[in-house]
């Protein structure tokens, strides 16, 4: 079979080539590289936000014990050195990305108690290493009001309830 076919446009015989040229393949690879470069930072932010959510979920599980301790004794549970009235020792409260959660008296005006979650220095997003997330209790008109903040985390990584 002849590999030449006649072209109706010019009357010359051309090769019946099939497939992609090297330039076309290089263009496709470049496009994939650009898309990956745009997607990677967004994925890293997503991973960091998921790890911050773990800390917030761990602290949410402790809210009732901290509030009950405050209302019954008018002091905040301090779990730095031992278990304290239903609040486990700070090193016993941990997650995959959270090293510890400490409960203590808040230093902020108007707040009573706070829980401070400290992120690990390894196996965690770089933006979170050693940083803290704080959940504070404020008693207002007999109601418990919890607020979330961080002094060292970028607000990009905070859940919407924690953003200023």
From TrEMBL:
Source species, domain of life: Bacteria
One example of a Gene Ontology biological process annotation: cell adhesion
Membrane-spanning ranges: 20-43
GO cellular component: type IV pilus
Alphabetical list of InterPro entries matching this protein: N_methyl_site (IPR012902), Pilin (IPR001082), Pilin-like (IPR045584)
PROSITE patterns: PROKAR_NTER_METHYL
Alphabetical UniProt keywords: Cell adhesion, Disulfide bond, Fimbrium, Membrane, Methylation, Transmembrane, Transmembrane helix
Gene3D superfamilies xrefs: Glycoprotein, Type 4 Pilin
Assembly, per entry: The pili are polar flexible filaments of about 5.4 nanometers diameter and 2.5 micrometers average length; they consist of only a single polypeptide chain arranged in a helical configuration of five subunits per turn in the assembled pilus.
Record family assignment: Belongs to the N-Me-Phe pilin family.
Protein name: Fimbrial protein
């Amino acid at each position: 079979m002849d590999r030449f076919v006649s072209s109706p446009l010019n009357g010359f015989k051309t090769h019946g080539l099939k497939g992609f040229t090297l330039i076309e393949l290089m263009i496709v690879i470049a496009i994939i590289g650009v898309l990956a470069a745009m997607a990677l930072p967004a994925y890293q932010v997503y991973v960091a936000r998921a790890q911050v959510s773990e800390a917030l979920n761990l602290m949410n599980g402790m809210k009732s014990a901290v509030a009950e301790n405050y209302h019954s004794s008018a002091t905040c549970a301090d779990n730095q050195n031992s278990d304290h009235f239903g609040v486990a020792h700070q090193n016993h409260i941990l997650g995959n990305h959270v090293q510890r959660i400490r409960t203590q008296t808040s230093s902020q005006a108007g707040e009573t108690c706070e829980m401070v979650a400290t992120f690990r220095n390894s196996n965690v997003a770089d933006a979170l290493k050693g940083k803290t997330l704080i959940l504070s209790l404020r008693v207002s008109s007999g109601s418990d009001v919890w607020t979330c903040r961080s002094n060292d985390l970028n607000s990009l990584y905070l859940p919407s309830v924690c953003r200023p």
